[in-house]
Structures are given as structure tokens and as C-alpha cells.
Write the C-alpha cells for this entry.
Amino acid sequence: METIDQKRARNAWDAANGYTDAHVKAAKALPALISNSGLMQVLAFCHDKGRESEDVARQLRRWLDGRFDWIESAHFEPFMESLLAATPAQFRDVNREAFAWLKWLRQVAPAREKGGA
């Protein structure tokens, strides 16, 4: 049976398959952006920005949707609505889980980069 950390690692590994350099840069930047601005603000920024940043944010939303049954959907608007309705404890848990998953993604993304060594 896999530990939660193994599940995070496997999911991040699969999510990063075929990443470009722009995806890797987005994956590396997200934790600092979330620390500075907040999860919802960064997800909104990525959604607006589009392309690689949105790809990475979408994969994060999918992971979080699978981890928390109170999140309605991984699609942008229902996901954000779920966060808006979250209790402080739920919001804290989803933030903690986002950082834990992104820690793995930051590490595996460069190894999965398309055209990487």
C-alpha cells in the first residue's frame, strides 16, 4: 500500500510527463507565489495567464479535488467556489496539501521535461 507521500510523488511524476521548460518554470514558481499571495489569488492568476501556468494549476486542482471530498470539481470556477465556502480548517488543509504536492512537482518536473537530459 502506498503512503500519501508516494501517491503525491506518483501523481506529480505523471502530471509532469511531457513538460516543457515553461511548465518547469511555472512548477518551480508556484510555491513562492502561493506563499506571497495566497492559493486562490495564484490560481486566479494562472487561470487568467493561460498556457503552461494554467496547465500546472489545473493539475494541482485535480490532485486537490481527489484528496478532498468537499471540493466540488477540479474545474476552475467550481473549485474556487468550493474554496470560498471552505471552513478555516478545510482551507488550511487544502493549502498544506497544495504545498506538499508542489514540493514533489518542483523536484520531478525538470526530470520529465520534454527534451531534457
Observations:
- The two ends are 32 Å apart (CA to CA).
- The CA atoms of residues 31 and 37 lie 10 Å apart.
- The first helix runs from residue 4 to 15.
